[in-house]
């Protein structure tokens, strides 16, 4: 399950295609932040459509988040994460995954990503410690550990377990380029 409360920086919220979760081909995802190269991403995907037969690159909405998921639907995951410019923490599910209980998380640049592992084996994510604590409380879950995810980190979560963690090089030409350092772990 992924959800997001969107602060509309681009794309009218009255047009539901601009609201999260965003679906592009086999990808359904949410994005916290603001992308600055969304138009360029779609132009590049249109060129790939002509030269390589990439499918489904037509932009549906106005929201910048759609570009990140279009890239993930059509390109190598790490290439896609390194191509996005701006502030971004994203979560997505992919119907092509072999296991239905798979979720992908990435902190690209600036936008915080906090993950909480519960005693029962769930992973909660949000942009603040307070939000994951509130989510756990609302779901009657007990947090075992809280992690602040560093910039340039991708994680594959299967059935509430971190199965892959991979570093990548985010582009710092946009965004803030700072790192949150302190994350209190609840006792």
Q: How would you explain this protein's 3D organization?
A:
Helix 1 (38-52) runs parallel beside helix 2. This protein has helices spanning 38-52, 65-74, 77-83, 129-138; strands at residues 22-24, 27-35, 86-94, 102-109, 114-118, 123-126, 143-148, 153-158, 161-167. The strands form 2 sheets. Strands 1-2-3-4-8-9 form a 6-stranded antiparallel beta sheet. It has a 3-stranded antiparallel beta sheet with strand order 6-5-7, covered by helices on one side. With 187 residues, the chain is α+β, with helices and mostly antiparallel strands.
Write the layout of secondary structure elements.
Elements: E1 22-24, E2 27-35, H1 38-52, H2 65-74, H3 77-83, E3 86-94, E4 102-109, E5 114-118, E6 123-126, H4 129-138, E7 143-148, E8 153-158, E9 161-167
Antiparallel strand pairs: 1-2, 2-3, 3-4, 4-8, 5-6, 5-7, 8-9
